[in-house]
Amino acid sequence: MSLQGRILVITGNGKGKTTAALGTAFRALGHGQKVCVLQFLKGQGRYGERLMAEKTPGLDWFICGRGFVFIKEKIDEDRQAAREGFALAEKLVAGDQYDLLILDEITYLPLYDFLDVEEIVRLLAGRPPRLSVIITGRQAHPRLIEIADTVTSMESVKHGYEQGIKAQQGIEF
Ligand code: ATP
Ligand code: MG
Question: What is the mean pLDDT of residues 139-151?
């Protein structure tokens, strides 16, 4: 059975974007589909989801970026990491190995002028027909919203962080 790939955007300021994408990965894996996660602008760290990915067949995981963005002196490094990550995304799409590709935090690339949004649009337009793509991150560019078939905005009603609750293992990382 050949499925028509979808484009989903999960944006907004509330918590739950990356984890919603990973919930969809879990769903796809259950059907024996092949899933790839590519994380932009995130550093290496002991994120529970990555530790789980290592033990999960059918799920490939790539990280680009140093984790700490928007320090003025380091902006060129961030730009380069972002561009390298995007080149990897192009390779992963062209390889046609996956049913679902999650481009986690990719919204920040056009937002910080690391990449022209039209490059993302082109990549998605030229993807293999069966490939679904989930884009996550705050402030998704209007063009990404336009080309997606499904767009969700997470609204923050409140977040523990605002009450002084620190990032917690199993919930935040
Ligand atoms: P999650 O990874 O938990 O699904 P997210 O992808 O929606 O969250 P990001 O914008 O990627 O959130 O932020 C990453 C981290 O910031 C997460 O640890 C998350 O808990 C935290 N965070 C998300 N939303 C808020 C918020 N409104 N206030 C403070 N911290 C937040
Ligand atoms: Mg996220």
Answer: 98
